[in-house]
Amino acid sequence: MFQAPIVLRVRKRQKLVEDKVSRPEKVKFQDVRLYLVERKMGNSRRSFLTQLARSKGFIVEDVLSDTVTHVVSENSQALSLWTWLKGCDLKDLPSVHVLDISWFTDSMREGRPVAVETRHLVQDTVPAFPEGSTPTPEVKVSRYACQRRTNTENYNTTFTDAFEVMAQSYEFSEIEGSCLAFRRAASVLKSLPSVVRCLGEVQDLPCLGEHTMAVIEDILQYGHSFEVEKTLSDERYQTLKLFTSVFGVGPKTAERWYRRGLRSFGGILTDPSIQLNQMQQTGFLHYEDISRAVSKAEARALGNIIDEAVHAITSDAITALTGGFRRGKEFGHDVDIIVTTPEPGRERTLLPDIVDRFKQQGILLYCDYQASTFEWSKLPSLKFEAMDQFAKCFLILRLKASKVEGGLNCAEEDDRGWRAVRVDLVSPPLDRFAYALLGWTGSRQFERDLRSFARLERRMLLDNHTLYDKTKNKFLAATTEKDIFAHLGLEYIEPWQRNA
Ligand code: UTP
Ligand code: MN
Q: Which residue among 152, 228, 358, 425 sits deepest, i.e. has the most Cβ atoms within 10 Å of its Cβ?
């Protein structure tokens, strides 16, 4: 009488063991759950592909359910596939990747789930929603800026300016997490194609937490955020903002001066106990000029001046305008330029030669030169987020109005015929050019997310010098930015789409 249950239990255990035997592979990608559509693919090919994927550490579900993240089909008609999917009663079909077999084969070849690109998608050809209803955005906004296209047009400055105030305020208080959260949220809103008009439009966006949502809600409801207003009128915030606007004054110095009770430039300049370093002295001296935006025409003029100088020194030099101007911005706070040469090692001495020339021409107002500390043997650096090791200089140059098409960016009555401009020059070896160009083009948020994406999604380390694959234990060569995006399995994002 008591034997039946025991037999049952044994059978159950056997069944478990059998399951394990048929699925001995280790799961490597917990977040990706595949479902292979049998129709058109056929039963035996489906079993074969299932085994293949499982052997590479993928989870392949036998039945289509709400846990599935990637639906893969082969030779399917888009219309009939989508009609079938819509009839499957999934809770969140728009968030499921519906993919052609090409995504599957790419992923098998790479041994990891590759990033979904437009060419992989089986597009839904029928409108998902009846006319008049609110459509869910077709493409999900990625939480990585390097998977978003962000041009210079920002439709949501009301929100992003408010976020920047909050981010800055947290930066002053050294609360890095909150600072980054506001910067990340601002970056997501910058990528939107239109003005946000109601909370519903931002509800499903990534990187928007409780705090950022509260600010958006206030702005939508009252036209402004009380918390942001309060921050803006805060004396400490105002003072630190003012002090850090001086070239050479960082948050630490600003804080020290604030703690001493200083509240104005006049106070700093007349305090006998304050020793300004040379950078700060120059910062105060040219404050008006340097705090005024640099125009595209001015950036172009400086590009010409630098081109001319470099080519007078070495005939085969290469220069490239980077930073915000390469991203298509009309105005910037400085001009960022890469200079290099194919002659190995020459890039280490190029900048001092250029600077000497500027001195002779009488246009050098300030130079902070940092010699190259770049050595292959130091890579990959443990401090991957740190500043790069290339030779570089932070300059202030005297730019004559006559050199600028359409004249200088200043009011006519202030025109002395010249202005001071901040210029950054960096000089990597030519074989590091692509990495340096990508790193110096920015934006900062775009770079930050490229690095996180590489690390978290690809087990790779990226910085301004190189890309290192931790799985394969090797450096990946690149001669163009496109090569780097391809190594990372990312769709190429044009420079003017990197204004994240
Ligand atoms: P900028 O600070 O010049 O920013 O750095 P920007 O985007 O050009 O903005 P504006 O218009 O001048 O205000 C440009 C890029 O160069 C990188 C920064 O991370 C940024 O992405 N950079 C700058 C470095 O990688 N290393 C440096 O030493 C300096
Ligand atoms: Mn810049």
A: 425
H or E element that contains 422: strand 418-427
Q: Do residues 375 and 405 both lie within one domain?
A: yes
Atom 5, ligand 1: which residue's CA is nearest? 323
Model pTM? Answer: 0.75
339 exposure class (CB count in 10 Å sphere: 0-12, 13-18, 19+): buried
Per DSSP, helices labelled H in 362-469 are: 433-441, 444-458
- pLDDT for position 386: 64
The closest ligand to the CA of 330 turns out to be: 1
Residue 409 domain-assigned (yes or no): yes
Residue 364 — φ and ψ, nearest 5°? -90, 115
How many domains does the chain divide into?
A: 5
Per-residue pLDDT at 135: 45
Could you tell me if 388 and 348 lie in one domain? Answer: yes
Same domain, 381 and 455: no
3-state secondary structure of 475: strand
1 within domain boundaries? no
Q: Whose CA is nearest to atom 11 of ligand 1?
A: 332
State if residue 439 touches ligand 1 by the CB under 6 angstroms criterion: yes
Kindly state whether residues 340 and 418 are assigned to the same domain.
yes
* Whether residues 14 and 31 fall in one domain: yes
How far apart are the C-alpha atoms of 403 and 219, rounded to whole Å?
Answer: 44
Q: Residues 6 or more apart from 472 whose CB is under 8 A from it?
A: none
**398 and 482 in a common domain:** no
Residue 336 bears catalytic tag:
yes
pLDDT value at position 383?
A: 61
Which one is catalytic: 307, 424, 469, 483? 424
10 lines ligand 1 (CB under 6 A): no
- Give the range of the structural domain holding residue 202, as residue numbers without chain letter: 145-232
CB atoms within 10 A of CB 365: 19
pLDDT, position 83: 84
Claim to verify: residue 75 and residue 175 sit in the same structural domain: no
Q: What is the DSSP letter of 376?
A: G
Q: Is 334 in the pocket of ligand 1 (CB under 6 A)?
A: yes
What is the Cα–Cα distance from 247 to 255, expressed in whole angstroms? 15
Q: Cβ contacts of residue 401 below 8 Å, gap of 6+? A: 407, 408, 415, 417, 418, 419
Q: What is the pLDDT of residue 380?
A: 65
**Ligand 1 atom index nearest CA of 332:** 11
Q: Is the CB of 451 under 6 A from ligand 1?
A: no
Residue 452: exposure state from Cβ atoms within 10 A (0-12, 13-18, ≥19): middle
CATH of the domain at 484: 3.30.210.10
- Residue with the smallest CA separation from ligand 1 atom 28 is 387
Do 381 and 420 share a structural domain? yes
For the chain, which residues score pLDDT lower than 70? 1-24, 125-139, 380-386
Question: Is the CB of residue 325 below 6 angstroms from any atom belonging to ligand 1?
Answer: no
